[in-house]
Amino acid sequence: MAGSCKYETMQTGAMVRDYTCLTFSKPNEEFLFAGTKSGDFCSFQVKNKMFVFSQSVCAQGIKNIQAVTKDKICVGGGDGQIVLFHVDQNFCQSLMQTQLYGSIQGLSSSQDGVQMLAATNKGFLYRIRVSDFSQMLLAENHTEPVVHVEYLAGQSERFITSSVDGTIRLWDANDYSVRARCVNQMGVVENVYPMCSLFTDEIILSGWSDGKVRAFRVDNCEQLWQIDNAHKNGVTAIALSHNQKFIVSGGQEGEIRVWEIRSRELISHLKEHTSKVTKVQ
User: Fold this and answer.
1) Is the dihedral angle over the CA atoms 242, 248, 249, 255 positive or is it negative?
2) CATH 1.10.3210.10 corresponds to the domain 19-140
3) How many CB atoms lie within 10 A of CB 176?
4) Which class is 146-271 in CATH?
5) What is the pTM of this model?
6) What is the CA radius of gyration of the chain?
7) Domain extents for the chain?
8) CB of 180 within 8 A of CB of 207?
9) Contact of 133 with 96, CB cutoff 8 Å
10) Rounded-to-integer distance, Cα 72 and Cα 35, Å
């Protein structure tokens, strides 16, 4: 079966915008709403193809726009904002808003308009209740390759992962929820990421691509301390002694170093390998 497609142009007048997303009003598609790179959205009447109004929303552009009910639309921005608007012909009013972690990359409303799903570029998936805009984190994950995975010795209920996205996550294997999420004190920095990690009930130890060893609290992910210049070009392996008084670290250039955990002082240095150390135990 052959067919054809014909386009029609909306009248925008003097307004010039780069459009990023579109949605029709519910239930009869009387209006078309278009999000823009400028952080506002425009309303067009479909029947006469005329511009109706524009509404500023957020910074970093609008990434998603979704019709929720007959008189409500929801807008997701590049700055992580989600805003619910009441729309009525040529009138628009902000009702509620919430802030999520990361740029809004996906936004979908349930058929009855009771709830929405929102996904961000930081690997988070949220459920949002439309009535009060309360949010629930449903799932999260790394956004770059995972370079290390480690179980707690003698246990199968928790494990830890390190990723090129600059985060360390401690997972509960019962429901695969994240119990702790750690980044360095400077936040996520390009080309600075954890290459190895381990944990106890109280502390997370990690080796990083910038050559530092960092320690975090398990309960609140606060960074406790760091060892600067532990290894040139990155810490590739790390282990904790059975009495939890010493750290053994391996480096990109084959070095093995032993540290006293209380003082963070170097106790011993070994160099036998000619390439990076992949595991110490």
Assistant:
1) negative
2) no
3) 11
4) mainly beta
5) 0.84
6) 25
7) 19-140, 146-271
8) no
9) yes
10) 15
